[in-house]
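Archive maintenance. Older records in this collection stored only the sequence; we are now back-filling the structure field for every entry so that each record is complete. The fields below show one back-filled record exactly as it appears after the update. Entries are processed alphabetically, and DUF2283 domain-containing protein is next in the queue.

ARCHIVE ENTRY
Title: DUF2283 domain-containing protein
Organism field: Microcystis aeruginosa NIES-44
Length field: 75
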Amino acid sequence: MAQVKVFYEPETELLTVFWQQPRKEQICTELGDGVILIKDSTSGEPIGLEILSYRPGDNRFDAVSVELGQLNPVG
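Back-filled structure field:
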């Protein structure tokens, strides 16, 4: 089962969520409204998110959905 790591730094209002291990070589793309997608720089695979100016109860999570697990084969 995948392990999700969540880091919150209240002094900088930064929330970081990794659903894969952080990489030494990673790239970031801002999706908008202070939501940043973290990707493996080699494969381009998404490995996490950063939320800037985060405070508990932040309504931006209403627009973010991450599901982890194994897909059942169709057919």
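Update note: Strands lie at 5-9, 14-18, 26-32, 35-40, 46-52. The longest strand covers residues 26-32.
Entry marked complete.
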